[in-house]
Amino acid sequence: MSTQDLRVGIIGVGMMGADHAERVAHRIAGARLVAVSDPDTARAGALAARYDGARMIADPLALVADDDVDAVIIASPGFVHEEQVLACIANGKFAMCEKPLTMDSESSLRVLRAERDAGRALIQVGFMRRFDPQYAQLQQLLASGQLGRTLLLHNTHRNKTVPNPEFRSEMIVRDSLVHEVDVARFMFGEEITTIQVLSPAPTSHACEGVIDPQVAVFTMAGGGIVTNEVFVNCQVGYEVRCEAVSERGTAIAGRPQTGLYTTLAEGGEGYWGGLADPDFTVRFNRAYDLEIQAWADASRRGSVVGATSWDGYAATAVCAAGMESLASGAPVAVALADREILQ
Ligand code: ISE
Fold this sequence. Notes:
Mean pLDDT: 94
Bound molecules: (2R,3S,4s,5R,6S)-2,3,4,5,6-pentahydroxycyclohexanone
Shape: globular
Strand content: 15-25%
Helix content: 25-40%
Largest sheet: 7 strands, mixed
CATH superfamily of the largest domain: Dihydrodipicolinate Reductase, domain 2
Number of strands: 13
Order of helices and strands: EHEHEHEHEHEHEHEEEEEHHHE
Structural class: alpha/beta
Distance between the termini: 25 Å
CATH topology of the largest domain: Dihydrodipicolinate Reductase, domain 2
CATH architecture of the largest domain: 2-Layer Sandwich
């Protein structure tokens, strides 16, 4: 491991990027924030001014190429990820890219090919649930075989609200369900072969024409089934959990407490049975800390941990099939490239 601090640049200083800036500057060891970039230069400048030794670099590709930046966190919108991730690979810099890796399978494949041609893995994709202590523990329990073969997973993913009206039905698949896609692959250690997205009667709290909640069903390569509820205008709070059903037992990650647990939105603040987290930055705060610490440590060692670019590609491919299914209601097969030829 390098004895020097990792000098980190962050692209995109919206909610997640600003959260990571604080994390890199104050909550993790062996790393320091040296640069930030955002199309909103005033916002980026103001953020940089808050941290000693950090400066604003207007052009994100100049930030990537900068000699004083060792590694990059990409927290910009998904449609600019491809160019920024490819720039990191071309510059030989480790990057932690928030999901989605890119917007479609073809562009994610270009990232995989670039890494293969560079001869080394450099990209981690920000699927933070892999670092949530309970999710990580559940994965280890399932992998240990103690519960026998895993048969089913039931995922629940509820947001109090989302940015409306721009958060359309497709975003629920691409931006929210994508986490469950990664959880299913992580827990089973297998690819998803089909996805079906069902459209229940929508809540009156969703915008006109938005299908919320959605229920998605995945078939795993080994025959297991995963059910997923995604409900992004649930009004109550942030609730995310995963229940595994195996041949000899069951286990739940993310259950807030034991006993009867009931939630109720009342003036937006009322709950029975305990407080629900307001949003993902609070619920997964610890997971993000562990994720970024692990990324910084791995980058200093010269390796990649967590979700790889293959995982990011597979998630994108499943979501592409999911969007087709959202439109038709029918199950859709997931098309994945041959992994061997990409290594
Ligand atoms: C958001 O982008 C996230 O990544 C959150 O974890 C998820 O809960 C939310 O639905 C997404 O919009």
